[in-house]
Amino acid sequence: MIEITFEPAGRKLKTDPGHILEIARDAGVPIRSDGGGKGVCGKCKVEIVDAKAEFSKITEAERKHLSEEELKSGYRLACQTKILSGRAKILIPPESRLESRKIADLAVEREIKLNPPVRKVHAIISEPSLHDIRPDFERLEDVFGEFQIPLSILSELPSLLREANWDITAVFWKDTLISIEKGDTSNRGYGLAVDIGSSKIICHLVDLLSGETVARGYTENPQVAYGEDVVSRITYASKNKDHRKKLQEIVVTAINSVISNLCEEAGIGEEEIYEAVVVGNSVMHHLFFGINPKFIGVLPFVPAVRRGINYRAKEVGLKINPEGFVSSLPLIAGFVGADAVANIAVTGIHKSQEIAMLIDIGTNTEIVLGNKSRLLACSAPSGPAFEGAHISHGMKAVSGAIEKVRIVDDEVIYETVGNVKSKGICGTGMIDLVAELYRNGIISKNGKFIGNTARISDEEIRKYIVAYAEETEFEKPITVSEKDVKEFLMAKGAIKAGWTILAEKLGITVEKIQRIFLVGSFGREINIKNAKAIGLLPNIPDEKITFVGDTAVGGAKMALKSLGVRKEMEDVVKRIEYIELSAVKNFYSVFARSIPI
Predict the structure, then answer these.
(1) Distance between CA atoms of 16 and 19, rounded to whole angstroms?
(2) In the Cβ-directed half-sphere of 293, how many Cα atoms lie within 13 Å?
(3) Largest alpha-carbon pair distance within the chain?
(4) Strands 356-360 and 273-280
(5) For an engineered disulfide with 291, which of 8, 286, 413, 448 has Cβ 3.0 to 4.6 Å away?
(6) Pair 528, 579 in one domain
(7) The CATH number of the domain where 127 resides is what?
(8) What 3-state DSSP class applies to 159?
(9) Residue 83: which domain range?
(10) What's the predicted TM-score (pTM) here?
(11) What is the CATH number of the domain that holds 6?
């Protein structure tokens, strides 16, 4: 047994020997682990500040990511370091902490006719007598017609009816009875729309009678502790059933916490939420429902199910009405999920005459291109560079992240999230920085340093100084190396190759794209001109590029409020042509051409 204290959280515990990262995860102490605990990213840096303990030997991965000075000062990588015995105090430095990120509003929301599967009907049921001895269930059928009833309600039906003095409100999900309530509660009924992203979860509480959104909330996806990218989570979940169960439980627990807050804000009970519609990429979808995602991650990248599914809340563990349903929109393919379908629903590109592109940039970038005549979709393996991983000082768009950059007369002018001291640089900051470095002749098209500037260090590994040590929170300079720039350009190249190939398959040139919808939080802060300058987006007029916000939760709301939308999206998915980029003969040549600026 060992004793360990995590600071600055002040979390103390006694536990079995093990890796610092695993112990922190189990204790609910968030530490960045962009590489999924494999020692490849160097972002889970911790400092051993007070220890009377035995630790495992320093690994090659630690020597690669930590300087000799850091190792002498007690820095280790949490994923590589085992505490074998004794007690220790572990400090998680600012750059290794997980923090809340900026969430985009829903900039576009389509009005639809209300037609939810949930309906409430008030009725006074005739009481039995010696002259009318029909069973209780038959009395309900006389009023409501034929319907399905779960055993949990049937078993309590006699008591429920008599305690209510036969004055009840029946709650149905389609043709299934899910609740019996005392008196007339037909004016109260709620649903939940949930967007499970790889790094964040957004929930909207909706009044199903008016269609209005009554409360909004979000939380970080706790699965990030098991890997920033979906492939790392597939690997972890595929090891055994306990791992898969762990990832399912922690994401459901996180959503339940948001539900509790939303209900308190709206002044309702959790049992008054009768359905939740969930969207997310295919891996998040499978992990939420506890479905094995292993074969999404290996050729030919096949999910377990594509169509929308519906299960009881009590089966999933979601804290809404236990007999209520948890539903999902359909998936498109292995790496293009229900969130992309929700984005299509909101933007309406499946009904549009003009050729439009929908793009959701992230670790895995989903792209949909076409119009009402034909729709194509692909998943671009852009990697985690846009989320800050594999970039020396990369980070998400949380407080202190450099998100906007200009270079004027060799001076770097930048803005940080929250207008606080800088801690690192996020994806939108990298877009600006790369564009500005190229514009000012400091890097070549391939990302090599070619300009003369005092900001490029003379070290063996040349680095461009974005922020000097005195400007940063942890008093170390924020830099980018040629390797960082190349890593970013490769991620950009994968995205450009994706939309280039879709355009080819559609039989158009890129210039024929008439509208681009930027989806998700990442798109909110993108400098359009810089994104086009480096080739991240097609070069079409700025006014034709629209930021639509987190439309995934908007699409989930549309489905929550309308059975018609669900049917429409099932039909749309059947006609979408999914293009597996790795199977396209010229993908690697297109990818290679797409990397340079």
Answers:
(1) 10
(2) 28
(3) 101
(4) unpaired
(5) 286
(6) yes
(7) 3.10.20.880
(8) helix
(9) 2-96
(10) 0.85
(11) 3.10.20.30
Same domain, 561 and 523: yes
What type of residue is 114?
A: L
Q: 457 and 560 share a domain?
A: yes
CA distance 143 to 1: 63
User: Where do we find the tokens 């898969």?
Assistant: 244
Bridge partners, 320 (sequence order): none
Backbone angles phi, psi at 323, to 5 degrees: -90, 0
Q: Assign 3-class secondary structure to 88-124.
A: EEEECCHHHECCCECCCCECCCCCCCCECCEEEEEEE
- Shared domain check, 305 and 173: no
Hey, how many other C-beta atoms are within 10 angstroms of the C-beta on 140? 20
| Rounded Cα–Cα distance for residues 289 and 292 (Å) | 9
Q: Is residue 509 part of a domain?
A: yes
Instruction: Give the integer Cα–Cα distance in Å for 543 and 9.
Output: 46
CA distance 157 to 180: 8
14 and 84 belong to one structural domain: yes
> In the block, which residue shows the tokens 């098991």?
226
How far apart, in Å, are the Cα atoms of 71 and each of 45, 62, 86, 480?
11, 8, 20, 22
Contacts of 113 (CB under 8 A, 6+ apart): 562, 564
Contact 343, 519 (CB under 8 A): yes
Q: What SS3 string covers 405-472?
A: EEEECCEEEEEEHHHCCECEECHHHHHHHHHHHHHCCCECCCCCECCCCCCECCCCCCEEEEECHHHE
Q: Find all residues with CB under 8 Å of 545, minimum gap 6, and list them.
A: 515, 516, 518, 528, 537
Give the three-class secondary structure for 77. strand
User: Using alpha carbons only, how large is the chain's radius of gyration in Å?
Assistant: 26
Q: What is the number of other CB atoms lying within 10 angstroms of the CB of residue 589? A: 11
Distances (CA, A) of 154 to 318, 325, 369: 22, 18, 49
Same domain, 271 and 374: no
Same domain? For 288 and 224 the reply is yes
Q: How many helices (H) and strands (E) does the chain have?
A: 17, 26
Measured CA to CA, the distance from residue 594 to residue 382 in angstroms comes to 12
| Count of structural domains, the chain | 4
Digits of tens for pLDDT over the chain (597 positions)?
899 988 876 778 889 999 999 998 887 788 887 777 788 888 899 989 877 889 999 999 999 989 888 898 899 999 999 999 999 989 888 778 776 555 555 546 778 999 999 999 999 999 999 999 999 999 999 999 999 999 999 999 999 999 999 999 999 999 999 999 999 999 999 999 999 998 889 999 999 999 999 999 998 888 877 877 888 899 999 999 999 999 999 999 999 999 999 999 999 999 999 999 999 999 999 999 999 999 999 999 999 999 999 999 999 999 999 999 999 999 999 999 999 999 999 999 999 999 999 999 987 899 999 999 999 999 998 877 777 777 888 888 888 999 999 999 999 999 999 999 999 999 999 999 999 999 999 999 999 999 889 999 877 789 999 999 999 988 889 999 999 999 999 999 999 999 999 999 999 999 999 999 999 877 777 999 999 999 999 999 999 999 998 899 999 999 999 999 999 999 999 999 999 999 999 999 999 999 999
Q: From 162, 182, 202, give the residue that closes a domain.
A: 182
